[in-house]
Design a protein that fits this description.
The chain contains 14 helices and 11 strands. The chain is an alpha/beta fold and about 450 residues long. It starts with 5 loop residues before the first helix and ends with a helix.
Length: about 450
């Protein structure tokens, strides 16, 4: 957690909830809901003990996957609404949190450069958000498939299978980004109706050139969907320490996905999908004989594939953005700290005799591998795995890294001096998405070197 008195604000939330419920008069809880306090205490103690079987996602020594605790504001906001348990499928199930959802989605749309006439909503995950975007893609081009880079998240190939449409993986260049020549060659065939572009791939953090993909796709009457589940919030840094062109182009793309439960400091699950053209809402139309009855306004469930959704997710995000707005100096500073950490660690790795940088970091993911002797893919693979395992299982001073698998072709483009004696190798991968990583990089680097 960060420097916020969580206990104080949780107590405030509970007190306000009790005050609100008291306005409706007292009643006696049903006896079937009663549990013995001693049994409750015992079960809770067992739960707390079992929860210790987790990695320390909260600590900067954890630099493995895209995991970190939510901001205290998100916890307090989520709990405040969870005690009421609203359902944002319909205004009848959550009028207050539905209004909050519209407000936060509007803020996200503005961040990406969409006009006020967009369509969007929160989802339970980036996977569902991408499913919705591809569902609309299929509805608009039922006889054409979807193209995505070979480094794109696996959800796209999976969702193409779910939707029964053809997926077309596009090769990547030497920086792990979609190969534009290969994309254009594919589009010439007329089989692709939508191109997925990823500004921030989940393995390497590579920023695909949204603006260039958009130019090519438009020449072939193809839509462009932006998978910003991981990287989308870095839009806040565009024009400062990131090239603005890919990010500024998102506002001209047809749809975009972003995950507040990654860089938006929210608990799982909280994704979001937005469409530039609100008329795509016609593909969601359905009728329910009992759900929508207190308002003639459009309900969120009428523009969503999901039905029941936690209104608490909207409340958590709403409160967080009240404190850390979608500006460079607000939430942007949280992301900037992680990116500075990645850039500085890359510099330290570059100067090291024991390590080699696999690829220059573009966001907050650093990839690297031990310089082995002999310098072969099989030796790199074994050394990377050993370092990860030794670091995370150390009884004293553990560090938590992850690995990414790279093909021999990818190595050949980046590190031709590594002998390709096998088809590929794992490299070490560190995600520095906690801002505290900026002050912990020296400690991580020194501990990593001690493991080699």
């Amino acid at each position: 957690m960060c420097a916020v008195d969580l206990q104080h604000w949780l107590n405030e939330a509970l007190a306000n909830h009790e005050k609100w419920t008291a306005e409706y008069g007292a009643f006696t809880p049903h006896s079937s809901l009663h549990v013995d306090p001693a049994v409750f205490g015992s079960a809770l103690a067992e739960l707390q003990d079992r929860l210790r079987d987790n990695y320390p996602f909260f600590h900067p020594r954890y630099a493995g996957q895209m995991l970190k605790p939510p901001h205290p504001a998100a916890v307090v906001g989520y709990l405040s609404a969870m005690l009421i348990n609203p359902n944002n499928h319909a205004l009848d199930g959550g009028p207050a949190t539905a209004a909050m959802e519209r407000e936060v989605v509007s803020s996200l749309a503005s961040m990406f450069g969409y006009s006020a006439e967009h369509l969007g909503h929160l989802t339970s995950s980036g996977t569902i958000a991408n499913l919705e975007a591809l569902f609309v893609a299929r509805s608009l081009h039922p006889s054409r498939g979807v193209a995505y880079s070979s480094e794109a998240h696996y959800t796209h190939s999976r969702m193409c299978g779910v939707l029964g449409i053809e997926g077309f993986p596009v090769p990547v260049d030497g920086r792990g980004r979609m190969d534009l020549d290969a994309l254009e060659e594919l589009l010439r065939g007329g089989k692709v109706g939508t191109v997925v572009v990823t500004p921030g791939t989940t393995a390497l953090g590579a920023i695909e050139p949204v603006h260039l993909v958009l130019d090519i796709a438009r020449r072939y009457d193809a839509r462009v969907h932006v998978d910003g589940a991981y990287g989308g919030f870095f839009t806040l840094l565009a024009g400062t320490d990131l090239d603005p062109e890919p990010w500024e182009a998102i506002g001209s793309c047809d749809s975009v996905v972003v995950d507040p439960h990654k860089h938006g400091l929210q608990p799982y699950g909280c994704g979001a999908v937005l469409f530039r053209d609100p008329s795509v809402g016609r593909f969601y139309l359905h009728d329910s004989p009992y759900t929508y009855f207190t308002s003639d306004e459009m309900h969120l469930g009428e523009i969503s594939l999901e039905c029941s959704r936690a209104g608490a997710a909207a409340a958590g995000l709403w409160l967080t953005l009240r404190l850390l707005p979608l500006t460079r100096d607000g939430l942007g500073e949280v992301l900037a700290a992680g990116r500075r950490a990645a850039v500085r660690w890359a510099s330290m790795i570059r100067e090291s005799e024991e390590l080699e940088l696999y690829q220059e970091p573009e966001l907050d993911i650093v990839t690297y591998f031990p310089r082995t002797s002999p310098l072969t893919l099989s030796a790199v693979d074994a050394a990377s795995h050993r370092v990860m395992e030794t670091g995370m299982n150390a009884a004293v001073d553990p560090i938590f890294l992850s690995v990414a698998r790279a093909s021999k072709e990818a190595f050949a483009m980046r590190h031709p001096g590594v002998e390709a004696d096998v088809d590929g190798a794992r490299v070490l991968r560190s995600v520095l998405m906690k801002p505290e990583s900026e002050d912990y990089v020296d400690t991580l680097h020194a501990r990593l070197l001690s493991l080699l």
